[in-house]
Amino acid sequence: MTDFAPLLQPDRGEPAHTLRLVDAKTFDGWLKAQPQRVAAAVEAQRFAGKGYELAILPGDRDADDWSVVLGVANVEELSPWCLAKAAERLPEGAYRLAEGSSGAAALGWMLAQYRFEKYKKAQDAAGPRVLLTSDPARIDEAVRLAEAVGLVRDLVNTPAGDLGPAELASAAEEALKPFRPALTVHSGSEVETHFPLVAAVGRAAAPGREPCVLEAEWGDESHPRIAVIGKGVCFDSGGLDIKPSSAMLLMKKDMGGAAHALALARLVMASALPVRLHLVIPIVENAVGSAAFRPGDVLTSRQGLTVEIGNTDAEGRLILADALALAAEHKPELMIDYATLTGAARVALGPELPALFSNDDALAEDLLEGGSEVTDPLWRLPLWSNYAEMLKSEIADVNNAGEGGMAGAVTAALFLQKFVPDGLAWAHLDSFAWMPAAKPGRPRGGEALGLRAGWAMLRRRFG
User: Fold this and answer.
1) Looking at the domain assignment, is residue 139 inside a domain?
2) Could you give the angle at the alpha carbon of 328 between the alpha carbons of 325 and 331, nearest 5°?
3) How do beta strands 445-446 and 434-435 pair?
4) What confidence tens digit (pLDDT) does each residue in 330-347 have?
5) Measuring CA to CA, which residue among 421, 427, 282, 272 is closest to residue 360?
6) What is the pLDDT of residues 197-238, one digit of tens each?
7) pTM of the full predicted structure?
8) First-to-last CA distance in the chain?
């Protein structure tokens, strides 16, 4: 993983290049106050004070005496990404803001320097760009957030050939090891007996890639109990309802929900949030083979509901159903699950905006407000009960896919809701976990979308 800690340091007055921020309202006034050599440099670099623009400004002493002016959307309210482009473009060295604390912008400064170099080393990467901050009390939290996002990116970016169920479970164990949770990886006959939907989805996988369920508990038993669940489909071929090849290209990311849940759990533990945490990650590969579960099969879930298989490519909701049932048995105060669940959510909201479903308005509002506060937005979609008709089965309690092809994100969430007891506050985040095009601080590839919103909600409620 990228080492983010050295990139954000307390300002002890050491030599550093100054970063001055301007926006559309302050640019003209700032420029008029500059000496001629600075105004000429600004003009030569065609700097106009727009967001993500920067210009190098000459000093009055020697060649190393230079500063930087950056354009941001609003100098009064810095977003996490407003310094990210600068962190990508500036040369190695130390930098400090001319005025005020870096605040939320420190996160983007660090994440702009994220590198995934497991298979290919960056050829032109600059050395570390270190941001000195006048608010050292916020360093640890910012670094923890960057590490959480980096963990999601690393896991999602890793190809399925190197991150099967066993490897994902091992990666989770390694990520949680410093916090010493009570951790169990259910496998073999345990999965067959206690997680029948997980077992069915994963039973066609090759030897060594069998399904498992990772379960971890952490925290004081007297504290409020919360459950975090993540979909861990290491690769999704679609099963016998096989995907076209174009739809399989990104299916290494179908464990993105598990990566989010793991990263959120790690944030809870690293921050010593006063909760009793229950983490559940069902992990499978949805493969094609003679042992694969079939369209038309009827499976009995952990909860006891029978499920007719309308589509083997609707497998994520099956494994989440058993995980939700397990978590609900312990009667948590709230449950939140993350999943790369439906293409329908991406059609409706695009890649950057996770769909939020919740049976509890207060929980949904806390997630929406938390996401807005930390610039990790969500959009709430309805658990429209009339659409439950689409999941009816003639021979079982419910169909996993139903007919008609409409409202796919809603019907998937309605399916999950059947495994959540009445009165238990629950939220489901249908996240893409991927940036299809690079933006400042967010390279193309695996991305944490909805993670920081979930963390903001938990801090708001329990911090």
Assistant:
1) no
2) 160
3) antiparallel
4) 999 999 999 999 999 999
5) 427
6) 999 999 999 999 999 999 999 999 999 999 999 999 999 999
7) 0.97
8) 27
Q: State whether 111 and 177 are in the same domain.
A: no
The half-sphere exposure of 7 on its side-chain side, counting CA atoms within 13 A, is: 28
Residue 226, by phi and psi: left (phi above 0), alpha (psi -120 to 50) or beta? beta
The CATH number of whichever domain residue 23 belongs to comes to 3.40.220.10
392: three-class secondary structure by DSSP = coil
Sequence-distant (≥ 6) Cβ neighbours of residue 44 within 8 angstroms: none
- Find how far residue 108's CA is from the centre of its chain: 15
Catalytic residues: 243, 317
CA-based R_g, the chain, Å = 24
Q: Based on the domain organization, do 148 and 130 belong to the same domain?
A: no
Q: Using CA atoms, how far apart are residues 188 and 109, in angstroms rounded to an integer?
A: 44
Residues 300 and 266 in one domain: yes
Tell how many helices (H) and how many strands (E) occur in the chain.
Answer: 15, 20
pLDDT in tens, 421-456: 999 999 999 999 999 999 999 999 999 999 999 999
